[in-house]
Design goal:
single chain, three-stranded antiparallel beta sheet, 8 helices
């Protein structure tokens, strides 16, 4: 656990919620009943209206079918979304791991229709970024040193998410591996980590599921009575991690002249123009 001191980050001695302890130890946790039934209904109606009003964002190289379930930068589109991402119960869990000056780096609404698993990369085992501390095969993170957390993903559920609906599955402890999931087993339902099988993040409307960005996770297969998924996704990062609400083509700190001078992919990336990936794609 950490806290922001006068200037720099330092170890935290104050107690933290149990969900923060679970998140640091296991790489995932669920915070129950964050939002009331009324708050869920209001937020769901607001996000549904945005889906109906705004066309799908053109990001990356996805086809229309794969873009339609998403609307990005939701805090820019909705006052209710902006309020939701700052809920005190969420921040009480996140801040002991990221610092009191952490911020939202991505904020995407997901509306997966029933019976449509989708072609999005989230179907395969992946990590959201990193790993932030890469380790070679066979090297284990020391058990007596808490593994630092740099970014946390959160799903704010607007409808129940059952096993039949293809919830996010997580391999507990895999954030300590310093590695990505094996590329030759992208859809393997039997993948384990350190003997641990997948843990489905089953939740009710109003709950929040949290997972460390480095943990191995995927959308699990749907079943015959799949009712779809509907949630507001939020990624929180440490202060020194850049926001990804918009792609760098759209939001950057560059002059038109500097952009024009960058003629190769490496020249574009070195000045901060990155292709859409991870949180922004």
């Amino acid at each position: 656990m950490i806290r922001r001191g006068r200037v720099y980050l330092e170890p935290r001695s104050e107690p933290a919620p149990e969900e923060a302890v679970q998140l640091e130890r296991d790489g995932c946790a669920i915070v129950r009943d964050v939002f009331t039934e009324v708050e869920v209904a209001e937020l769901a109606a607001d996000i549904n209206a945005i889906f109906d009003r705004d066309p799908a964002d053109l990001r990356g190289h996805r086809g229309l079918e794969d873009r339609e379930p998403f609307r990005y930068a939701m805090l820019n589109r909705s006052a209710l979304c902006q309020k939701a991402i700052a809920h005190p119960r969420l921040l009480s869990v996140i801040e002991p791991l990221l610092g009191e000056d952490c911020h939202v780096i991505a904020n995407t609404a997901w509306r997966n229709e029933p019976g449509v698993p989708g072609a999005h990369g989230g179907q395969a085992w992946h990590i959201d970024a990193g790993p932030h501390i890469p380790l070679p095969e066979g090297v284990q993170w020391p058990a007596n040193i808490p593994h630092p957390v740099f970014a946390i993903g959160v799903h704010l559920f607007l409808q129940d998410c059952r096993l039949a609906d293809g919830p996010t599955g997580v391999l507990k402890g895999s954030h300590l591996s310093g590695r990505a999931p094996p590329f030759d087993r992208p859809l393997d339902n039997d993948l384990t980590y350190d003997g641990q099988p997948v843990t489905p993040l089953i939740a009710k409307a109003g709950d929040a599921a949290l997972f460390v960005s480095d943990v191995w996770h995927r959308r699990m297969p749907t079943l015959a009575d799949d009712a779809g998924r509907f949630f507001l996704q939020v990624h929180y990062g440490r202060r020194d991690i850049a926001q990804r609400l918009k792609t760098t083509d759209d939001a950057n700190q560059l002059s038109a002249e500097a952009i024009a001078r960058a003629s190769t992919d490496r020249e574009r990336r070195i000045i901060g123009l990155h292709p859409a990936l991870f949180y922004d794609g």
